[in-house]
Hints:
Strand order of the largest sheet: 4-5-6-7-8-9-10-11
Number of strands: 11
Largest sheet: 8 strands, parallel, barrel
Distance between the termini: 21 Å
CATH topology of the largest domain: TIM Barrel
Helix content: 40-55%
CATH class of the largest domain: Alpha Beta
Number of helices: 20
Shape: globular
Strand content: 5-15%
Number of domains: 2
Amino acid sequence: xxxxxxxxxxxxxxxxxxxxxxxxxxxxxxxxxxxxxxxxxxxxxxxxxxxxxxxxxxxxxxxxxxxxxxxxxxxxxxxxxxxxxxxxxxxxxxxxxxxxxxxxxxxxxxxxxxxxxxxxxxxxxxxxxxxxxxxxxxxxxxxxxxxxxxxxxxxxxxxxxxxxxxxxxxxxxxxxxxxxxxxxxxxxxxxxxxxxxxxxxxxxxxxxxxxxxxxxxxxxxxxxxxxxxxxxxxxxxxxxxxxxxxxxxxxxxxxxxxxxxxxxxxxxxxxxxxxxxxxxxxxxxxxxxxxxxxxxxxxxxxxxxxxxxxxxxxxxxxxxxxxxxxxxxxxxxxxxxxxxxxxxxxxxxxxxxxxxxxxxxxxxxxxxxxxxxxxxxxxxxxxxxxxxxxxxxxxxxxxxxxxxxxxxxxxxxxxxxxxxxxxxxxxxxxxxxxxxxxxxxxxxxxxxxxxxxxxxxxxxxxx
Length: 463
């Protein structure tokens, strides 16, 4: 890959494909951009040591994408239609990408184009931003570059997943914890994340007798952060905001908890402001699945009746799109049909794709061993008593993506091609299972994607 020494060299490199005049970008030759310039551009957006070159590369990708009709967008319009009952019959997959982000995003877009899929979300959680070394600014740039590379056209939904309140930090210094979340939200929205999932479910206090009091800190913080997000919105854009009533891996959620949260939330939210569009609940799953001693995943029992019941309440009583299911990527293949039948709104998928990358026969054994050695040296303290080697590696290998990000990007082209092909096949399978095939038309009908103003200065500030 070409590493640019300064922004002048960057623009000289891409002069046959894009042109910059003041703060606008025009496409000289889109095919040249895809074939000859884009891989270098995204490489510099991620790895260039010059802040100026890195910021300019990210800005140029976003501006070029918009010139090609590829716009970062909010899914709010579609979810409003789902809440009214105007749209039904599919579940929106929200896909977390922890590593090989450019290749994985390309695989998603290829599967989407082939199957005319418009309803799908790219997301990254607050915790993943940290351990994978992917800021919102970087993540959005890479996703939009992948859209350009594959010739995708239309709205691209990028989401902040589990923008979560740390309960321990909150108890120690509430103001500092909330200020940190607001700073993350501000940088994410500026980067093009027009969908934000707030997770204050960590503050739910089940020791309280009254359910509304159990949920009070959750709905109060969710309302406060919703109001903050509304103050960041650009003209013509309503950011889709999600809430959560039950921490994933905890006890299953109930209708009483949903109503207590929503009634308290709406009562706390400033009059006239748009509220959340969906609600995450706990139904028996856990992030990453339950790992058995041999490293395989235990088959868990998902409470699909809870999904059906709470989705109905969410839609009929509060106009939400429905409930959101977390921790689904490691579930058995036959479970995904049930999310559609039980009318969930959105399903979050993450660990399964991480596993595919690490476990691929094409992933170099030497690099895999090097990563696992690193995990043993740096995360030995996280090994629980009685945990097998397989369980330890399974639980910690997500933390190899950040330190080895560049090494993974530098894998030989044929290796990346093979892994991308495997991922593409899996995305096609999931798109079929979740019934989002042929949803480009419904997305075009209900989603209004508008131009977003990006600035190099903002990209610099978010490095």
